[in-house]
Design a protein that fits this description.
The protein contains three helices and two strands. It has about 200 residues and is mostly helical. It has a two-stranded antiparallel sheet. α2 packs antiparallel against α3. The model has no long low-confidence stretch (mean pLDDT about 75).
């Protein structure tokens, strides 16, 4: 019984000792690795400050792309093609800053047609002014002529009436002279009204 007990203990020790030895070695290596991995700082590189309440600013440096929080899309009132871009996203702009240049062949053609029509209208207006000026000159010439004839007819009527009163002329001659003088006076009045209308039309252009 004593020999069996001793041999069993020896067998147990032979099996357990290698396992314990390996376990001790593994624990020792683990502790050494943990100590070597823990960071170490130099005391002179540390900065000690008093704790204060307030906002905490955290600055992080790194590579990346800035993305705007608010994006505004620009729209044009008419269709067009982008010919030139003056500013890129992120540039500072003001109320009158030109960002890009658009072109529309249809609008360019319409502008050219409108300019041609405007030039045609200006030429017609200039021609109309010339015609009105010529008409105004004709009216003035006719007025001067009628005024001269009316004055002459008035003098002739007064002369014939004086001769008739002095019994040196006939009543028929006096009446004819007076009728001619009155007719020319009426024509002169109408011509002056026409001249006034022509001058107003000329000033309106």
């Amino acid at each position: 019984m004593i020999s069996i007990s001793v041999s069993a203990r020896l067998l147990f020790l032979r099996l357990i000792l290698p396992v314990l030895t390996l376990a001790i070695i593994a624990v020792t290596l683990g502790v050494l690795r943990v100590r070597s991995a823990s960071p170490s700082l130099d005391r002179s590189s540390l900065q000690y400050v008093t704790v204060q309440s307030g906002p905490m600013i955290c600055r992080v440096e790194g590579l990346g792309t800035l993305v705007p929080e608010d994006v505004r899309w620009l729209s044009a009132g008419t269709e067009g093609r982008v010919d030139q871009v003056f500013l890129r996203p992120g540039a500072r702009v003001r109320a009158n800053t030109v960002i890009l240049q658009l072109s529309n062949p249809d609008i360019v053609r319409e502008i050219a047609d409108a300019e041609l029509a405007m030039k045609k209208s200006e030429a017609e207006l200039a021609n109309l002014r010339v015609q009105l000026q010529a008409q105004l000159l004709n009216e003035r010439a006719l007025e001067a002529q009628l005024e001269s004839e009316a004055t002459q007819a008035k003098l002739e009527a007064e002369r014939d009436e004086s001769l008739y009163a002095a019994q040196l002329g006939t009543a028929m001659s006096a009446k004819i002279s007076r009728a001619r003088a009155d007719s020319l006076a009426t024509r002169l009045k109408i011509e002056r009204e026409k001249l006034g209308i022509a001058e107003e039309a000329r000033e309106a252009q």
